[in-house]
């Protein structure tokens, strides 16, 4: 029996349970009596976390991301730090890498820093959808509230804020087909939750527009511009008239490919990136890209975290719509 179980049985938030444990005057006597009755019935002994929510806040939040050299990750960390500062909170940053055991170790290490909550940046922490791959996050959520950015885990104490990657990819591919594009290449560099949602949107849009799903048009490649260019150049018999990519770097590689092949962009081939990064405006021609609205994701995550820490109910899943930014690599 833990603080989450008591909160659920009493019909209150974990922060309210903590306030009852600490006899806070902010909680009504009626609510205190109800929560204490549930605690007594279930022989619950408050732990350090339950007391710490009320008394020993360090005003510090842990942030873990796989790789801060990644533009998307670096931007997200900056947005999170900015939002936390407005609430008077500091942050501790760990870069975990992508390997499972390294992520487990990073979470265990950061929990030793007496943080008030934990932010995980990126859908890689959502694992492969199996419970076993996210057990270490479930363990962390028994100690502090955990907020996952751009991934989804169904787990008590884990709150997820994510972009609607499926819908924007579905809408974008549908727009390409309506503009007459028939062979749309899907470039991706990860098998993460986010990438899987983008691929699902891509494939369902093809089906709904009566186009076949051609596995040869789904290409996995490292997110390096020249590697993407060379990979496409090596596919001599591969024909496509549009490209959608899960990151701007992949899409810029496709632009480089088109230039070397003597193809006109967007007349011969439409190319669309993802994340609306600085690469999109550095590219020539400037790259049309999907804006995943990472600043809004991060702000929403921090706002939700503060609500949870202050005893207010918070939805376990919040979805932020993406938007398409048209530039010069598309003509629809």
UniProtKB/TrEMBL annotation:
Domain HTH lacI-type residue range list: 1-55
Keywords from the UniProt entry: DNA-binding, Transcription, Transcription regulation
Any matching Pfam family: LacI
Family annotation (Gene3D superfamilies): 3.40.50.2300, lambda repressor-like DNA-binding domains (1.10.260.40)
Gene Ontology terms, MF aspect: DNA-binding transcription factor activity; transcription cis-regulatory region binding
Presence of keyword Cell inner membrane: no
InterPro entries per UniProt: HTH_LacI, LacI/GalR-like_sensor, Lambda_DNA-bd_dom_sf, Peripla_BP_I
Full protein name: LacI family transcriptional regulator
């Amino acid at each position: 029996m833990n603080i989450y179980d008591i909160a659920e049985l009493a019909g209150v938030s974990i922060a309210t349970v903590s306030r009852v444990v600490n006899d806070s005057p902010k909680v009504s006597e009626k609510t205190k009596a109800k929560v204490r009755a549930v605690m007594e019935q279930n022989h619950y002994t408050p732990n350090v976390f339950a007391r710490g929510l009320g008394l020993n806040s360090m005003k510090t939040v842990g942030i873990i991301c796989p790789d801060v050299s990644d533009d998307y990750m670096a931007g997200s960390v900056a947005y999170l730090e900015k939002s936390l500062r407005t609430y008077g909170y500091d942050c501790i940053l760990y870069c975990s890498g992508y390997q499972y055991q390294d992520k487990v170790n990073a979470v265990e290490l950061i929990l030793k820093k007496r943080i008030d909550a934990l932010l995980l940046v990126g859908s890689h922490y959502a694992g492969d959808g199996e419970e076993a791959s996210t057990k270490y996050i479930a363990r962390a959520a028994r100690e502090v509230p955990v907020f996952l950015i751009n991934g989804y885990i169904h787990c008590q104490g884990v709150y997820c804020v994510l972009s609607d990657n499926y819908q924007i990819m579905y809408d974008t591919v549908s727009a390409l087909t309506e503009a007459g594009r028939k062979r749309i290449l899907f470039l991706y560099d990860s098998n993460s939750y986010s990438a899987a949602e983008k691929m699902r949107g891509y494939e369902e849009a093809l089906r709904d527009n009566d186009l076949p799903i051609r596995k040869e048009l789904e290409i996995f490649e490292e997110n390096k511009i020249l590697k993407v260019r060379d990979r496409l150049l090596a596919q001599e018999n591969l024909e496509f008239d549009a490209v959608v990519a899960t990151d701007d770097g992949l899409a810029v590689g496709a632009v480089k490919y088109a230039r070397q092949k003597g193809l006109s962009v967007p007349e011969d081939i439409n190319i669309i990136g993802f994340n609306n990064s600085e690469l999109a405006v550095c590219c020539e021609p400037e790259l049309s890209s999907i804006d995943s609205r990472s600043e809004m994701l991060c702000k929403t995550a921090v706002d939700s975290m503060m609500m949870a820490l202050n005893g207010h109910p918070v939805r376990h899943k919040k979805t932020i719509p993406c938007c398409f930014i048209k530039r010069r690599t598309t003509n629809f």
